[in-house]
Amino acid sequence: MQLITSWENRGVIAGVDEAGRGPLAGPVTAAAVILDPGRPISGLMDSKQLAPLQRELLAAAIRIRALDWAVGWADHAEIDRLNILQASLLAMRRAVLALSLVPEMVWVDGNRCPALPCAVKAIVKGDSKVAAISAASILAKVERDAAMQRFDPVFPLYGFAVHKGYPTPAHLSAIAAHGVCTIHRRSFAPVRRCLEETA
Fold first, then answer.
1. pLDDT tens string 122-146
2. Residue 109: DSSP 8-state
3. Residue from 140, 109, 112, 129 nearest 47 by CA
4. What is the model's pLDDT at position 7?
């Protein structure tokens, strides 16, 4: 599928995507990226289709070549208080508002839009259709993975550097053996069940 790579007279467009809706621990992360049509980045695609090293290299290129980029977060406590959808939208809003440039239009991956002081459009599978959303997908994933790696030595019993908080068999076994830690999402079913069993 051909990515939309230019503004095509639409004005300054920011692509937005999130990473980390599915994990049982840690934050949900969003990125907003305004690409420079004069400095194209080859290889942009949905971050899930890329190997970790490819994501790292592309993220570095995005930081250097984009006109502007920013990252927003919603932590585990906000996820539990708001629910994961609303926390994801909050992280997206924070990412856009952290941009130095003010976009005229924001294109968001998915079917829901954050509340923003500019025009915003949801694009289903946008991370495979729009270059700026692909770039945001990559940056959000790389930033969140790095955050989970930083949590690993703080909570060494859980293997966050490996599974990044996703509900892998190893992670579920660690929760069963050691209980939950500070950054686990209490509102997610496997974590909630563990808390109920140990109450």
1. 999 999 999 999 999 999 999 999 9
2. E
3. 140
4. 46
Exposure string (b/e) for 21-44, b if CB count within 10 Å is 16 or more? eebbbbbbbbbbbbbeeeeebeeb
SS3 at position 25: strand
131-151 and 52-65 helices, crossing angle to 10°: 120
- The closest of 144, 187, 104, 151 to 136, measured between CA atoms, is 144
Domain boundaries, the chain: 13-145, 160-198
Q: In what order do the strands lie in the sheet with 13-19?
A: 68-74, 28-34, 13-19, 105-109, 119-123
Return the H-helix or E-strand segment holding 69: strand 68-74
Sign for the pseudo-dihedral over CA of 9, 11, 12, 15: negative
Could you give the count of Cα atoms lying within 13 Å of 98 in the half-sphere of its Cβ?
16
Q: Which CATH architecture has domain 13-145?
A: 2-Layer Sandwich (3.30)
Those residues with Cβ within 8 angstroms of residue 61's Cβ, 6 or more apart along the chain or in another chain = 41
The percentage of residues in the chain with a pLDDT greater than 90, rounded to a whole number, is 91
What digits encode the pLDDT tens for the residues 83-133?
999 999 999 999 999 999 999 999 999 999 999 999 999 999 999 999 999
Over residues 161-199, the pLDDT tens digits come to 999 999 999 999 999 999 999 999 999 999 999 999 887
How far apart, in whole angstroms, are the C-alpha atoms of residue 135 and residue 33? 7
